[in-house]
Amino acid sequence: MNDTSLPGLPAGATARVADGRASIILDVTGLSAEAADALERQARGVAEAAGLEARVARTASRVARRLIAVASGKGGVGKSTVSANLAVALAKRGRPVGVVDADISGPSQPRLFGVEDATPDAADKRMFPVQTPAGVGLVSMGMLVPRAQAIAWRGPMLAGALSQLLDAHWGSTDPLILDLPPGTGDVQLTMVQKHRPVGAVIVSTPQDLALIDARRAIDFFEKAGVPIIGLIENMAGYACPHCGEVSDPFGSGGAQADAERLGLPFLGRIPLSREVRAASDAGTPPAAGNGPGATAFDAVAQAVDQWLRANGG
């Protein structure tokens, strides 16, 4: 028997039958690992019911998914915390979002999501994202090297690492939040040249020194042709837990004023909060809950969600 069909195969599967063997090609584009496994079991079951030995090969086309770069011109402005909580807040809005910890040399997302001891599985030389308790998939170099080991790589190795993280088995995940390292170096250049984000979110604290560097990040993305989704002002205002009085140790309104001056959207203000700090250190993103710490992140996520809807759904 030599045929190119096998009745009963699932949609997207083709087979060649010869010498008592069914060689099945299974298209798993966009499927999760669990869904792909289930489809393969179904195909094998069809072959075995026909008395045939089954050999299954999976194929997948590259899925065009949207990348949102979260960037800052300098370190220490809380970009990683904002990235994690933005992703969680978008997930709460029903988006199948994932996080790529693109800060290769200083990965902090495993700690923020409470999965420092997790190790990603792999197949076909590609990783599967680690599913976090917050419902967001994550890939990070922080889960591939010992916790205290320095990652001191030059440009080509950094670029290769970023490509591997982005090329993980993401299934139907869309969008991906990219937590970029500070500045405008090799990782940022590789990202805009090879992977082309649909937009960038710029994080700054209110003081002038941080805003100077934030403007450099804005200039970088604008010259690269990547739209600026908007600016976020982090660590904006501190409410005393004892008296309730609000003070502004880093100033107030600087990022919003800059956004207005540059004609860019202002996405929101995240307060300097002991609750956010403690929850982040504990690996429980505050955006996953319903407390006061989630409110500001929910507002930012709503603005980003609206931008996505206006730019492709």
State the major sheet: 9 strands, mixed
Secondary structure tally: strands: 15
Based on secondary structure, the structural category is alpha/beta
Measured by DSSP, the beta-strand proportion falls in 15-25%
What does this structure look like?
By secondary structure, the chain is of the alpha/beta class. Helices cover about 35% and strands about 25% of the residues. The chain is built from nine helices and 15 strands. The chain has helices at about 35-50, 80-90, 110-115, 155-165, 185-195, 210-225, 255-260, 275-280, 290-310, and strands at about 1-5, 15-20, 20-25, 55-60, 65-70, 100, 120-125, 125, 130, 135-140, 175-180, 200-205, 230-240, 245, 265-270. Helix 2 (about 80-90) packs across helix 9 (about 290-310) and helix 4 packs across helix 5 (about 185-195). The longest helix has 19 residues, at about 290-310. The chain is elongated, with a radius of gyration of 23 Å.
Descriptive keywords:
single chain, 313 residues
Q: What is the compact description of this entry?
A:
By secondary structure, the chain is of the alpha/beta class. The chain has nine helices and 15 strands. The mean pLDDT is 85.
Q: Strands, helices and their partners?
A:
Blueprint: E1 2-3, E2 13-18, E3 21-27, H1 33-49, E4 53-59, E5 67-71, H2 79-92, E6 98-101, H3 109-113, E7 122-123, E8 126-127, E9 130-131, E10 137-140, H4 155-166, E11 176-179, H5 186-195, E12 199-204, H6 208-223, E13 228-239, E14 246-247, H7 254-262, E15 266-272, H8 274-281, H9 292-310
Parallel strand pairs: 3-4, 5-11, 5-12, 6-10, 6-11, 12-13, 13-15
Antiparallel strand pairs: 1-2, 2-3, 7-8, 9-10, 13-14
Helix pairs in contact: 2-9, 4-5
